[in-house]
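Hello Y.,

Per our agreement to keep a running log of every chain we model this quarter, I'm adding this entry. I've kept the format consistent with earlier entries: sequence first, then predicted structure.
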Amino acid sequence: MVSVQAPQNPDPATLSARLPAFAWRPVTAVAALTAAYLLATSARYGYHRDELYFLEAGRHLAWGYDDQPPLTPLLMRGETALFGTAVAAVRIVPLLCSLGMVYLAAACARELRGTRAAQVIAAAATAATPMALFLGHIFVTATVDFLVWSVILWLVLRWLRTRQDRLWPVIGAVAGLGLLNNNLVAGLAAILVIGALISGPRELFANRWVWSAAAIAVLLWLPYLIWQGQHGWPEAKMMGHISGQSDERANLLPFQLEAATGATPIWIAGLWRLLRGAQTRPYRMLAWAYPLLLALLAITGGKRYYPDGFLPLLFGAGSVAVVDWLRRGRERVRAAWLWASVALTAVTTALLVTPALPVRTFVAWGFININKENGETIGWPSLVATTAGAYATIPPQQRPRAVILAENYGDAGALAHFGPGAGLPFAYAPHDGYQRFGVPTDAQDGPVVAVGFRGDQAPDFLTGCVQAGVVDNGLKADNQEQGVPIWVCSGPHQPWSRLWPTLVHYS
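Predicted structure for the entry above:
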């Protein structure tokens, strides 16, 4: 018998053959369950510190900020203009982004000729992960970023299958919008290029449609680049600080295995299938891009969660491999193991990552030590109330010259949001992008209420300081604000115009 090997480069007509129908009903059922859970928990605990920052950034729209491009604050401004600023309203965009990733995982499975079952597995595995449930719960830059990555990877996957060049202007537009949200999209483009150089298709680089996509992306990104240039490239300073956090490098690989908990074998199977599968050879550039991204992050010290934008693609590929595995025997036993793994992922994510538990239980059981981000949604009204009590000790005649100074954008954002209801004036903060939302004038040479400066000693740039209170969230929740003293000082050592540049810091 003569064995027949699969062709190294399958015929384009074969790649463009009819795909399985999209499993709209079961995938929508998965999305509906995801949406129901996110809606049920959306208003629990409180705002995340980044959300409080974005609420204020949305009131100071610009083409750029010291710490990021403009899209997330713009989306926050539009969302709150339509639905208000309640906690549940702020979580609408995250919910939609999460659902988008669920559908895109199924779409990636379909592009790889995944059956109805494969599409449902991909959607369910994605929906169960922290990427979908946590980023579907809070509005941070990564919420939009991972959706953008998922769309780009799906579109590139589709082009590799169909070679329909009209997809490239769409890819360019999505990438350009993504760059207006997070510069990491440029890193995604770079690793895709290197992946194509390693495994092909190298004719990509002679395709004028590809170059048009690059031009579209850069043109959309240009206003932000101009803003950064005009302000001395502050985001480069911030990225330099992040890259110095060695724990990100040390935890990069372990986090990839933990990020999907029980569903981790599915995405690993997807990566292996894309790298080694005979039928997936045309898509190998996408498989190479993932380890290239890990290498890039190991070098630059980027955040450990950045690779999560690949999960919808990898779950899509892995679900096809899983269906093949189920068909090899003992299908019921293997299916039970599969769905138990997905269920374990969902339950673990719900308990540890999202606010499924009452806040007192979440803190008392120590889960706050596992997920400190949820801890940063606790206690903001207490911080504002303590600050208001300190501000009330300032004689009324001195208040027009008084300043409330927060150490970081989270505290300042909380004071901006809750402060007016407590009779507080605008709070300044020399931290990241918040520093440009307002600077005290030299005429404000009166008392200073200092918030968020940790330690037993008052800030050394202020004089005559007296401790006027200590922040207590009432739950013994060990977050960044708990136990921080509030100081009332007689004034700054020198005029604010000279002092402010020395206080600006990034993190």
